[in-house]
């Protein structure tokens, strides 16, 4: 866990619970607004989409970029965060 950002470490430190989507590493305030506007207000809803895409990081990243205006960096960080969470908790 030494190479992880503090935000990623915090996200992975406990179950997802009722965390808002902005808790997901890589989700900026602006991206969170776009996600919330389309119904992705909780981290677990974003995780659900990641799981529906069979944890395919490339597909999830493309979806974030195309549908919500995420940058490549945001998309990569958030997919990595959800992948790491799945490794820890699923």
UniProtKB/TrEMBL annotation:
A matching Pfam family: SAM_BAF
A GO cellular-component term linked to this record: condensed chromosome
The entry's keywords: Nucleus
Main location: nucleus
Subcellular location field: Nucleus
InterPro entries per UniProt: BAF, BAF_prot, BAF_sf
Example GO molecular function: DNA binding
Gene Ontology terms: biological process: chromosome organization
Primary role: May play a role in BANF1 regulation and influence tissue-specific roles of BANF1.
Description of how the protein assembles with itself and partners: Homodimer. Heterodimerizes with BANF1.
Protein name: Barrier-to-autointegration factor-like protein
Organism: Equus asinus (Donkey)
């Amino acid at each position: 866990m030494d190479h992880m950002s503090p935000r990623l470490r915090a996200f992975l430190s406990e179950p997802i619970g009722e965390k808002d989507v902005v808790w997901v590493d890589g989700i900026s305030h602006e991206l969170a607004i776009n996600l919330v506007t389309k119904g992705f207000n909780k981290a677990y809803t974003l995780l659900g989409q990641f799981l529906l895409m069979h944890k395919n990081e490339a597909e999830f990243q493309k979806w974030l970029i195309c549908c919500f205006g995420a940058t490549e960096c945001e998309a990569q960080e958030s997919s990595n965060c959800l992948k790491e969470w799945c490794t820890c908790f699923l």
